[in-house]
Amino acid sequence: MPVPWFLLSLALGRSPVVLSLERLVGPQDATHCSPGLSCHLWDSDILCLPGDIMPAPGPVLAPTHLQTELVLRCHKEADCDLCVRVAVHLAVHGHWEEPEDEEKFGGAADPGVEEPRNASLQAQVVLSFQAYPTARCVLLEVQVPAALVQFGQSVGSVVYDCFEAALGSEVRIWSYTQPRYEKELNLTQQLPALPWLNVSADGDNVHLVLNVSEEQHFGLSLYWNQVQGPPKPRWHKNLTGPQIITLNHTDLVPCLCIQVWPLEPDSVRTNICPFREDPRAHRNLWRAARLRLLTLQSWLLDAPCSLPAEAALCWRAPGGDPCQPLVPPLSWENVTVDVNSWEKLQLQECLWADSLGPLKDDVLLLETRGPQDNRSLCALEPSGCTSLPSKASTRAARLGEYLLQDLQSGQCLQLWDDDLGALWACPMDKYIHKRWALVWLACLLFAAALSLILLLKKDHAKEWLRLLKQDVRSGAAARSRAALLLYSADDSGFERLVGALASALCQLPLRVAVDLWSRRELSAQGPVAWFHAQRRQTLQEGGVVVLLFSPGAVALCSEWLQDGVSAPGAHGPHDAFRASLSCVLPDFLQGRAPGSYVGACFDRLLHPDAVPALFRTVPVFTLPSQLPDFLGALQQPRAARSGRLQERAEQVSRALQPALDSYFHPPGTPAPGRGVGPGAGDGT
């Protein structure tokens, strides 16, 4: 039904340009073209089937540019519909092939071959128009006289009047020829919206304000707009204006659209999608997204709207460790538990939770298939993928023979299967139970023997227990404490300074781990896996993790705290500090860091106040000025502070001083007290 003129004027404005929109009288479509061209419009719409691109047999007409213009199609003086006029600009593409006889012999070609070059060109141009809920395709026949055929030159345009569309709708237009010789042109345009339909926010809620007259009856529909397939309706109701409809912020998604229309025959429907760029809508979309396993070779990401994302398969060991990539990988296009968008981890799910049950201590076996039916098996562990069978000292290697037997006997569950390989889950419960049964049996035998000895020799037993207690205490004091040193590799000079500090600490009763001394393992395992294994071992043994802050480390920490991920950029393959932040931050955020972490920075390089506040929840020492306190924090928690602490601090300071001088005063620069210029004497 035509829209009253006063509504069109409200939507389009009162400017002279808008009020001078051309008016078309009558419902018939029409076409016209540039001078010299002839064009004809087919009587009825056609099917929208572009077809495949074909090679051009010679010069052809091709659409080069689409141009639109808003016009009014009026049934009466005051009742008009908004209409989109489309102009298709055409040019001559391609060329005639030279005859072989003329190329080889330089002679004149057959006069009959020249005749097509002097003929006119014809083309069938298709215009495809989409504006929810309608779609149309029309066919325009265009003929260009021979006098206008100039290769690569524009020959003019053909204009179609017109495609009707609703106010506020988004229209999409394509143009191509039949047959199709080139990629189709496309154009998207947003038409003006009616001012009586507004969206406003009130705290966590969203208001749809429909400011229409009290006697106006209209329909309101909420739906999810889909890139492929029909829209999914969510809510529909017939109302009488004016109305204010409240939506909860949790219902917002980017593809949520609103459709409004008067309850009259053949009324035009207005559509708007106001939440496409709303951050809350995008967060809700990922919260509603779910991964679902269909078969052993396919998966489905269920979400209200289309999602641009990348998927990858990873695995996680019990204990809340980060999900680690498969090495070697399976076909990542077909399976996922990690979904990333805009360089952020958005979704992580175990697709096989229904078949595996709760997370338990299973072993994942990765089967890779090569040419000529060659296959290999490895077991996924935090240190990497251990080949089976193997003589390594890992748990999977020790049980490799039993795991292979379980796989052959069908006791393992197949999780994935494709041309590249397969993934299996093999239970470990029975082996763990057997091992603990032997341990308990040995403990019982030892307790029985000890009880018998105590009964036979009470006095000797007391003396033996006293000596044993002293040995345990002295042994605990003598054992060195593990320390994991983390730093940001700002430059080669800073790395040498870190190496000097680590070497100096090794002279004390400390077992220092630093990536500088483990480059081979770091390259084989990857920074994340290497750090995770070192951190776990250090903390399990009651050690301490030392965060050595520098300007580069502070910048990386700030990026993680602001965005949740490290900013993309060039970094070395051994940058364990960048890789470690994903595991370090949870310890600080959940309050587990005190007692297990300490911080440090060099006096003239960084002030402690520059360290992010989150990391100052543990002690942060400046070196070398606070070396005694720093070394005291690295001691065992129950170790007594002895008079040797100051002596050890002086020892570390002496070992560290040459590296500090080299870093802060490189060769070729004046040393402190030996500068040049006014006031720099010779000391005599």
From TrEMBL:
Main location: membrane
Residues covered by the SEFIR domain: 480-632
Any one GO MF annotation of this record: interleukin-17 receptor activity
Membrane topology: Single-pass type I membrane protein
InterPro entries linked: IL-17_rcpt-like (IPR039465), IL-17_rcpt_C/E_N (IPR027841), SEFIR_dom (IPR013568)
Localization of this protein: Cell membrane
Biased composition, class Gly residues, residue ranges: 674-684
GO biological process: inflammatory response
Gene3D superfamilies named in the record: 3.40.50.11530
Region described as Disordered: spans on this chain: 660-684
UniProt keyword Ion transport, yes or no: no
Assembly notes: Homodimer; disulfide-linked. Heterodimer with IL17RA. Heterodimerization with IL17RA is independent of the cytoplasmic tail. Associates with non-glycosylated IL17RA constitutively. Binding of IL17A and IL17F induces association with glycosylated IL17RA. Forms complexes with 2:1 binding stoichiometry: two receptor chains for one interleukin molecule. IL17A homodimer preferentially drives the formation of IL17RA-IL17RC heterodimeric receptor complex, whereas IL17F homodimer forms predominantly complexes with IL17RC homodimer.
Protein name listed in UniProt: Interleukin-17 receptor C
